[in-house]
C-alpha cells in the first residue's frame, strides 16, 4: 500500500541523501563550524535541484520546505535566487526565510543569488535596511549576527554605486554586533567599496566608529589585496598607524 504521507519534501530529502558525499560533508563541517546536521551534498547538485524546483512551483515548495539539515536550508536559499515572479512576492518569501539563516554560507549563497536586486534597487534597499534601525540595532527576529551579515553582504554585492555608496558607508559605521562573521562582512564590504571609491573609503578609515577588531580586519583585507598598488598600501598603512 502506498504511503499517502510521502510528498515532494520526502522526494527532495531522498535526493539529497542519494547524493551524499561523506568526505565533502566533513570538509564542509570544518568550513562552517557553527552549522550542524550537514549531509554533504556538492553545490552543482544543489544548484541543479534548485533550478528544477524554481522552474515548477517554487512558492509551493517554500511553503512546505523542511529545514532540518544544512542542505535543506541552503536549497531554499538557492531556490529564492532562481525564483521568477513579482519582486514584492519574492521579497515576502525572502523575509520568511531570513530568520532561518544560522551560518555564513547560507547567508552568502542567498545574497549571491539575489541578482534581481540590481534591477530593483529601491525595493531591495528598502527591504534590507528595514532589518536594522538607524542606530544599528536589529529590528526583526532571527539570528542577529547572520541577519546583520546578510545586510552587509547585500550592500557589498549590489549597492556599491554612486546612488548608495554614502548610505552603505553610514550603515557599516553604525551597525554593531560582536560576532566575527558580521565584522568580517563589514570589512569585506569596505574592501569592495575601496575598489570603486578609494577616496571615500580612505576618508572613512580616518574617521569612523568601528570597533578595533573590525577596523583591523578591514586593514588586513586591504593590505593583503593583490589589486592595490604599493603606493595605495603605503597610504593605508599610514592611516592604520
Description:
66% of the residues lie in helices and 0% in strands. The chain contains 13 helices and no strands. The protein has helices at residues 8-18, 22-31, 43-64, 70-82, 87-97, 104-113, 121-129, 144-158, 165-174, 180-196, 198-206, 212-223, 230-240. Helix 10 crosses helix 11 (198-206). The radius of gyration is 20 Å and the shape is globular. The N and C termini lie far apart (74 Å). The mean pLDDT is 93.
Rounded radius of gyration (Å): 20 Å
Which structural class do you get from the secondary structure elements? mainly alpha
Largest sheet: none
According to DSSP, the number of beta strands is 0
The chain-level mean pLDDT equals 93
**Which percent range describes the beta-strand content?**
under 5%
The count of helical stretches stands at 13
Please report the distance between the alpha carbons of the first and last residues.
Answer: 74 Å
Helix content range: 55-70%
Low-pLDDT stretches are none
In short:
The chain is mainly α and 241 residues long. The chain has 13 helices and no strands. Helix 7 packs antiparallel against helix 8 and helix 10 packs across helix 11.
Describe this protein with a few key phrases:
241 residues; mainly alpha; 66% helix
